[in-house]
Amino acid sequence: MSYELTSGGDLDVVRGIGMLRTQRESWQAAFVQRLVVTDVVAVFGAVVAAQIIRFGGPAAPPLAWPLPYEVGYSVVSLALAAGWLALLHGYGTRTPQVIGTGTEEFRRLVSATLGLFGVLAILALLLRVEVARGYLAIALPAGLCALLVGRAAWRLRLRRWRAQGRCHTAVLVVGSSEAAHAMATAFTGDPGSGYRVVGVCVPTGAVRPQFDASDGPAVLGDDRSVLDAVRRSRADSVAVAATDHLGPAELRRMAWALDPLGVDLIVAPGVVDIAGVRLTNRLVAGMPMLHIDPPRYGRAKSSRKAVFDFCFAAIVLVLVAPVLAAIAVAVKLTSAGPVFYLSERIGRDGVPFRMIKFRSMLVDADAAVDALIERHGGNPVFFKVKDDPRVTPVGRFLRKYSLDELPQFFNVLRGDMSVVGPRPQVQREVDSYDGETRRRLLVKPGVTGLWQVSGRSDLSPEDSVRLDLSYVENWSMFLDLALIGRTIGVVTRGDGAY
Known about the structure:
16 helices; transmembrane helix; EPS_sugar_tfrase; alpha/beta; 49% helix; Rossmann fold; 5-stranded parallel β-sheet
């Protein structure tokens, strides 16, 4: 296999890609300029605020150092801001590879700020300079917070632009039929990442049922005709998944061929649903490798998670007590039956418990479920139907905004559930589990979880299981906090609930 540029057609590739590079680099350059302005405002705002708060304004005492020259804190503030901005540039906080997605951008912001601390400490030691601690205690934390908030605000703006079809990176996916489909699905399912799949290349003769649908990405060739597919699709990135035909030598030659075209090469390691905190990059004999830490089942059952669950649930119940009372009155006055609905669910280690919710259906709803499943041809294990006739008018509103689930925080106080965890399962679901799916039962079910913020009732049973298993294996306290924050947005919009 060869990826060398040897023909006139390859020059057409360069011209076509050059046009697309101009478009991509245009929006990236404009976005970086906005980040520069935001960073300058954040840094200078922080040092000026620190000087005003600590010294009352520009008329501050001179810097304490052994040299015979007086240096005022206005000069110190200017030098500090210039050094800070230089470190932000030096740490690559605005490179195209990190802006707009992932946590690397924020990690580099923090590293640059900590690096500034280190530089100041070394200079103070060598030059015997005494910088006012109160000044630094205000400037550095305030500047870091302002930088993080500014980047987060621009990231939200960028996601809105991408939702409108702007600021995308056109990507060509290369790999086996199954691997290419999984990667294309991942890119499509995360529009905020900015990747738009413009085609796929799969091995010749491979069975490709995944790409037969008219609304899926087009197959532009096999994994030996990548350059031609790049020319036809005008892709500016090539993402390579698992394939038997592309070994280390072929990937290196592909990188050489793509470099003059300005096309990025992305290589997927082939692992799925593994959180970044479990991955460690290592270089062994010149070959990059990923070390994967064991699943975090034990951490998801830790005492600190239990303490957090209890405290969070108690605070929520106190804050929403008036809302609970209003909902209870509305349910009681608008339909016959009890206010609460108690349903048996299966908890950690397969132990059943009674989950409490506000009643959103008619009192005889359970008796009609078999007939409803047969009428709609649904899955008896995981049954959900839109416009369910058993749901009351008030219940429909409660379900849309997940208000019927608020009493589940009482289950959290009792220790039956967690604030964040897998979806609570009924016995008929658990009876259908295989050995892999039963891993959902290793931790307590949650009031919210990955399933809640990733589509809720619109999810297929397979996706629901996959997300729950991913949570169980990759748990962290930061993940819980992130999912709680995302849940607020999801339930406010009423996405995927019925």
